[in-house]
Amino acid sequence: MPHSSLLKKLTLVVIGMFAFAFALVPLYDVFCDVTGLNGKPSLEVATESNKVLTSRTVDVSFTTHSQRNAPFEVNSRQYSVNVSPGEMVEVKFSAKNLSSEARVMQAVPSVSPGKAAKYLHKMACFCFDQQPFSANQEVEFTLVFYVDTELPEEIEELTLSYTVFDISEATASNTVAAKQQAG
Amino acid sequence: MSTVAQSEQNHHDHHAAKGFKRWLYTTNHKDIGSLYLIFSLTMFLIGGAMAMVIRAELFQPGLQLVDPHFFNQMTTVHGLIMVFGAVMPAFTGLANWMVPMMIGAPDMALPRMNNWSFWILPFAFAILLMSLFMEGGGPAFGWTFYAPLSTTYSNDNTALFVFAVHIMGISSIMGAINVIVTIVNLRAPGMTWMKLPLFVWTWLITAFLLIAVMPVLAGAVTMVLTDKYFGTSFFDAAGGGDPVMFQHIFWFFGHPEVYIMILPAFGIISTIIPTFSRKKLFGYASMVYATSSIALLSFIVWAHHMFTTGMPLAGELFFMYATMLISVPTGVKVFNWVATMWRGSISFEVPMLFSIAFIVLFTLGGFSGLMLAITPADFQYHDTYFVVAHFHYVLVTGAIFSIMAGAYYWLPKWTGHMYNERLAKLHFWLSLVSVNVLFFPMHFVGLAGMPRRIPDYALQFADFNALISIGGFAFGLSQLLFVAVVYKCAKGGAAVPDKVWDGAEGLEWEVPSPAPYHTFSTPPEVK
Ligand SMILES: [Cu+2]
């Protein structure tokens, strides 16, 4: 084989592997979506549930914490709820901007145990969008969700955790919501 | 070009310019090999000096010599320099020198690219080292530059780190491409694949690993760069990214990288052991297949570095078993080396001493690796000095010892002189004892829970750490002996025959000693 054609092939491999590093980003998300690993819940609006499984119940608890001194206090009104799979539930969250400036908040959800993530469907969530706050503003958010009837038997309780970020500095184009819409 | 250089050119057959320009413009594989090796030795000493700072600080509990931020810079840059500046260029240097001579080629296939791949390297390390002296200091997030440490919490000099890694990556990719093209296209007539010397085989496989994963590293640093400076959110959860994804991408590069640093070592040891056992290598074909399977397996085990990130059970089990599987081909290699020595007429020249030490101590490092592969145990060992002990056994008494073995083995061929045997043996024995005083107790402090990368530690670790530091200083100073041996050997010494070692085999021993500037201008016939 002449040097040049071998060189061309090897260069293509190099370029391909560089692209592969970036392809790992969506691939990783796809992998987590498909398998529901990593507690990465879907950020798409779920459709309504059509059946309720009354034979069993699941405890769903809520927890929130602020990341990197984000000046927000977010708390669920209930510590936990006891629901049947398929049953639609509304949970209120109170949120407050602790700073005396206008701020934008982004909440990022996570589900534990990780394999329960794909069975938790959110129909309305403040985590779907960035939430602008005026100075010291207090807001009430409503979360509407249900647990899939297919939830494996051995999972009797799960936790929905929100990490709250201050994204006032970031541009609107690189937020969760914008990314989700784009692709 | 000056007239002096012109006339010089006519005197010696066709050497190019003299002095610095000769080295700057050279496209000769032996010149470039020497440049790589000298560069690597320099980096080894600089990285070693940083290790001395680390060990001096850890000599006693409490903070005494350096502040924690500088300590972090030392651990980070020590790692980067040893991996990318010392071990990898040393192997590339050996490949440059030996691969063409071993396969009967006149030079590397792409000599001008060869020149480039070396000469961008000093700039990469100049940039990296310069950042240490700038306001805010150099990289301090560990050589693994985990996000968000390298994105959110790093200083503005991070861009310099990123560019330095880019250049190192480009250099080693070019070096790897050159090795592949040389081996595929320039083998002497009759040199079939299964007649290739094992050093050539292991380097060919290493080169494929390099072109497969160095671009992934380039991708990872690029993402860190854009996350930090251009507002992307690859690793930022607030923007929809994921910091754990950094670790996946990094270790997808990182695990094959550890084999990049050990496969050529396997090649060197497989060359030296038969020479001084005066027997053929046991299981040549199985060595080739074992090397290939280690390389292939290296792509599916990366998450064993991430057992504590909250991976699901299925993932933990998969990566645990896959990792343990690698010990099978590695065990085949160790078995073959020992079987080669079995009933051989062994003599203990310095290259052989380093090779035997390699087999014993690398295997020890392999065993601690096996312990780390056990997921539930890893939760205890993770980020402790046990890990530090493990990878220093495989990299110092593994990779570095093999490089030393190779250097002593081929030094007489390169220079035409035998090295000073007494000094060399002193270097070996001092290194052997001190390296174990340095790294062996780290297993114990690690098991007892001493965390890595911290400039201070709990009082109960004080005695062991003092001992470790003494071992460290002794090992560091012993390496100056190596510098002295190499220098003396380059300057003079007893003349050696073409075939320096009576048990040696291979084309490189058919050319005169010292190896002339041009070898195999007409390809030899391999039977
Ligand atoms: Cu690994």
Can you give me a brief rundown of this structure?
With 183 residues, chain A is α+β, with helices and mostly antiparallel strands. Chain A is built from two helices and nine strands, in the order αβββββββββα.
Number of helices of chain A: 2
Supply the number of structural domains of chain B: 1
Greatest interface (CB-CB under 8 A), with counts per chain: A-B, 41 and 40 residues
The total count of strands of chain B amounts to 0
**Share of helical residues of chain A:** 10-25%
Sequence of secondary-structure elements of chain A? HEEEEEEEEEH
Task: Identify the overall geometry of chain A.
Answer: flat
Domain unit count of chain A: 2
Q: Classify the secondary structure makeup of chain A into a structural class.
A: alpha+beta
Q: Name the quaternary structure.
A: heterodimer
CATH class of the largest domain in chain A: Mainly Beta
Mean pLDDT over all positions of chain B: 93
- Per the CATH scheme, the topology name of the largest domain in chain A is Ctag/Cox11 (Pfam 04442)
Number of strands of chain A: 9
Low-confidence stretches of chain A: 171-183
The general outline of chain B is: globular
Mean pLDDT of chain A: 80
In the predicted model, the low-confidence regions of chain B spanning at least 5 consecutive residues are 1-12
Rg of chain A, alpha carbons:
21 Å
Keywords (chain B): Cell membrane, Copper, Electron transport, Heme, Iron, Membrane, Metal-binding, Oxidoreductase, Respiratory chain, Translocase, Transmembrane, Transmembrane helix, Transport
Organism (chain B): Pseudoalteromonas holothuriae
Family (chain B): Belongs to the heme-copper respiratory oxidase family.
Catalytic activity (chain B): 4 Fe(II)-[cytochrome c] + O2 + 8 H(+)(in) = 4 Fe(III)-[cytochrome c] + 2 H2O + 4 H(+)(out)
